[in-house]
Amino acid sequence: MCLLPRSDQDPNLLVGLDTCDDAGVYKLTADMALIQTVDFFTPVVDDPYTYGQIAAANSLSDVYAMGGRPLTAMNIICFPVDKLELSVLAEILKGGADKIREAGAVLVGGHSVEDNEPKYGLSVTGIIHPDKVLTNAGAQPGDALILTKPLGIGIITTAIKGELASQEEIAIAVGVMAALNKDAAEAMQEVGVNSCTDVTGFGLLGHSVEMARGSGVTMTLYSSAVPVLEPARGYADMGIVPVGTRSNLKYFNKFVEFAPDVSELEQLILADAITSGGLLISVPWEKSGLLMEKLKARGVKDASVVGEVSGKGDGRIRVVKEREI
Ligand code: CO
Ligand code: CO
Ligand code: CO
Prior knowledge:
The chain has helices at residues 48-64, 86-102, 153-161, 167-178, 182-191, 203-215, 230-237, 243-252, 264-270, 285-297, and strands at residues 13-15, 24-29, 32-41, 69-79, 106-114, 119-128, 143-147, 195-198, 217-222, 256-258, 279-284, 304-312, 317-320. The chain is an alpha+beta fold. The site of one cobalt (II) ion has 3 residues, from loops.
């Protein structure tokens, strides 16, 4: 999955290209490290302001997934000046700026190029204490796995592109995608957790495989405990599923064993390729209750315990219907 060349060896590079993590982390001093990340994509919804919000929330999320706090952001913009009104561009940038402000970060610049399709996102710089960096390679046997946003966003955005989704469904999906992972990140740093990543293009299944392989563990996911946006089930049943979701399921299948009662529909939802998804957090089981309390108290209402780290191993994932006690 990581096609990048290995990063140069530098003792201050705490997180580089080796782990396929969310962002790079570089130690500046004994108590401060820099987090750097960049992300941008084509519109997932028609409304430009909302698109700007979603793209910015998604870019900021990679700092939160490392446990960090975003400080500064820069816009990355591709825009077809001959095809679209400049007011559309202004709305995209306003959506992004509002999310940057909500994150408590500062917009410091950016770069734009002419292109035949709009693309937008941010390069974000954050900070963190070097001892508090969370990677996707720290999960420990006995951990609980907590997911902080519902799945099904990829399926619903496909329905939106096909002009099938109702205004209400669009509003629900947009609300989930535009929500910052800030509260979830603060709650997990308060409690102290072992590992974190955000769930995006590879789906819950793929990002779980990455975390399990990176951590040298095996995991069990409970399919009925995973939060799902209800309309996604109906659309998936009608075959409205993004290409990326199907290829995720196909690709990650070799690392995953599904119990016979986990339907193909559930398998697809677990593999759903999403934009601006929630955090997947690996936390010692005895702390999971406290973390769930703190998440709910901060309004992260969809947070759920979706699985466990079952043992040491080579990254295999078992998906069962319910937790077996
Ligand atoms: Co990420
Ligand atoms: Co990213
Ligand atoms: Co990470």
